[in-house]
Amino acid sequence: MDAIVLHRDHDGPRRTTLPRPEPSTGEALVRTLRVGIDGTDYEVLNGGHGEFPEGQDHLVLGHEAVGVVVDANGTELTEGDVVAPTVRRPTPDGSGREYFERGEADMAPAGTYHERGIVGADGFMAEFFTSPARDLVRVPDRLAEYGFLVEPASISEKALEHAFASRSAFDWSLDSALVLGNGALGLLTLGMLVESVGVERAYCLGRRDRPDPTIDVVEELGATYVDSRTTPVPQIPRRYEPMDLVYEATGYARHGFETVEALAPSGVGALVGVPSPWEFEVDGGALHRDLVLSNKALVGTVNSNVSHFQGAIETLDALPDWLFDAIVTDVVPVDDFERAFTEDESTIKTAIEFSDT
Amino acid sequence: MDAIVLHRDHDGPRRTTLPRPEPSTGEALVRTLRVGIDGTDYEVLNGGHGEFPEGQDHLVLGHEAVGVVVDANGTELTEGDVVAPTVRRPTPDGSGREYFERGEADMAPAGTYHERGIVGADGFMAEFFTSPARDLVRVPDRLAEYGFLVEPASISEKALEHAFASRSAFDWSLDSALVLGNGALGLLTLGMLVESVGVERAYCLGRRDRPDPTIDVVEELGATYVDSRTTPVPQIPRRYEPMDLVYEATGYARHGFETVEALAPSGVGALVGVPSPWEFEVDGGALHRDLVLSNKALVGTVNSNVSHFQGAIETLDALPDWLFDAIVTDVVPVDDFERAFTEDESTIKTAIEFSDT
C-alpha cells in the first residue's frame, strides 16, 4: 500500500510502498480517508521533534486522521464506521500503563508513551492503518470529510476543559476571549469559542496584512483581528479589553508570560503552543504579583484522550460548513502529496486524501 | 476603648482611645479577643501597602481577628458566639457589588473593595468592632483561643481549593507537596496539608540554621525541611522528588517561576505570596514548554470568603493543639502591644490579646 514516510536522513516526506497491516486481537483495520498536516509534522520533518520507531529506518507520518473501518476484527466497531484515531499508544515497557488503563494517556509523563506519526510509532499517512478499537472514535457522516480536524479540535477541547476546570471554584463568566495565533488550530479554536462555547467578544492575534484569508475567517466569525505588530499582547487590554480567557497557540515563548498581562481579573491562560528553550528578561515580580492579586491562572495542556475526541466531535458538529471549507485550503490526492507540504500566503490547512467514503 | 492604630506619618503602631462603635442595622457588636499579626501588617506599617480610610488621619490595624458577639443587634447571631470576621467590605461607590452579593468578595477586582485593617477601612485591633453579621463566621469553642488563625488558614483553604479545581478535569493524586516559606502561613499550610488533606510526603523550604523552632515544627509534622541555601528550588526534584503541589508563600518573585520546575507532571503551583515588581532573566521558553508538555498549572489567589472561613475552621479543627502552640510564639496583652511587633529568631507568629473568653 502507499504510505508517506520520513527516512532517518530527514530528506523530506517520501512516498513508499509498505505491506498492508494486519489487525491484532482488539484492533480494527481502517482504510484511510484523509490525513491533515500541522506544525508538529513540520517539526518532525525538520528533526526538531519526534523519534523513529525502534528498528525502523523510517516513520510513517501523520497523526490527524479519519478513515473507514474495513475489518472490525471482532471488536465493537462495525465495518463502514467512520473513525478518527487518537495519537498516544503504550510503550512496550508499559511504563505509562496506569494512564492508558484509565483512559488518560494524555496525562502520561514524557517517555511513557509513543505518539503515532510523531514519537516512536508509525502514523496514519498510509492507505490503511490498524488501531486498537478503543482508540478509534466514531465520527458522524456530516463530519466524515473533515474528520481529520477532530484531532486538532480535541487538543482545544482538552485545553478548554482544563482551563474551565481551573475557574470552577467560583462564579466565572467567559465573555471575552483572545486566541493567540491565526493558524489552523487558532482559527478552529476561535470558531469553537464563538459558535459552540458562545463567547460574546472574541479576538484573534496574527501578524498578517489584509487581504488575508485568515483575517477573513476571523471577521466572518464576528471576531476581531488584532495585529501584533501594531498592538503587542500586553497592550491588548488597553486597546481592546482585558480577556477572561487567552488561548496561546503560537508557541512563541514570550506570549506565555504576556498572556498574564492580557487577562482580566480571574482570567485564565490556556497554553498549548510548544516553544523551545529561550532565555529572556521578564518583570517576574509584576507577573507573579498579578497572578496572585488578580486571582489569575495559567494552565498548560498537551495531547487529548478519547473523551476529548468525543467532545470535539460534538463541538465540531456545531460549527458551520463554511468554516471547515475556509480553514482547509487544500485537499491533495496522494499522487500529489508533495503539494500538501508546501505553504504560501493562502495556505491555512492542508490534508492528503488516500481514498473517499 | 483601646485601639492600635497607624497614623498617616507612619511612625509605627500607636495605642489610642477611640469611641466604642455602634452597630448599624445588620451589624453585630463584637468584643475582641485576639488579633494576629502577619506580613501584610508590616507592609501596611512600612507604607508599602494599604490605604487610610477616607477623611481619617489613622487606620485601626489588624485583619486576623477573633471575638465574642456582645450585641447581636437583631441579626442571626447570638450574644456569646465566638466569631472570626472576613476582611473585605464594599466601597461606598458599590463598584464591587455583584461580587459581595454572591459571597465572592475575594474575587472582586482591585479598587472595588476595602480591606479592614489594610485598605481604606479600620481593622480589628480595638477592644470592640462592628461588622455585618454575614461577614462574621462562628468559631467552635475549641478554636476560640486560636480563632485569629482562621483568617490566614482561609487564605490557604482558598488557594488549595482553586489549585485542586485546576486538577479536577482528570484523575490527579496529591502525594507530594512542597511549601515554599517557613513563616506562620507556610507552617500552618504544611500542617493543613499533612493533617487534614493527608499528603503522604510533605516538604517545607526555608533558609534557617538548626536549632530553629520552624524546623522543629516541620519535622514534628513528619515533613522534610529543605534548606534553600543548599538546595535551590529547581534542584528539589533531583535531590528529593518532583512535587504534585507547590504552595508559594514567600512572595519571592523567582519562586513563582521556579515552582514550575519543582512540579511533577500534572502538578500545580498555588501562589499566594505577593512580590513587588522585579525584572530578571528566565528561560521562558523552557518554562512555557514544560507547562504545556507536562500538563502543569499555576494558580494565583488572594483573600478568601465566608465559605473559605468555614472550610478553614473545619480544617483547623483537624489540627493538633501542639501545632497552634508551636506556631503562636507570643500572645501579648494590649498594654504591652509593642512587643507583638518585635521579631527575633524565635518568633513565628504573635497576637495581641484584648480580652479573654
UniProtKB/TrEMBL annotation, chains A, B:
Its EC number is 1.1.1.47. The keyword Isomerase does not apply. Residues 25-141 form the Alcohol dehydrogenase-like N-terminal domain. Pfam families: ADH_N, Glu_dehyd_C. GO terms for biological process: non-phosphorylated glucose catabolic process. NADP(+) binds at N182, G183, A184, L185, R207, R208, T301, V302, N303. Residues 144-354 form the Glucose dehydrogenase C-terminal domain. It comes from the Archaea. This is Glucose 1-dehydrogenase. It comes from Halomarina salina. The lineage of its organism: Archaea, Methanobacteriati, Methanobacteriota, Stenosarchaea group, Halobacteria. The gene is gdh.
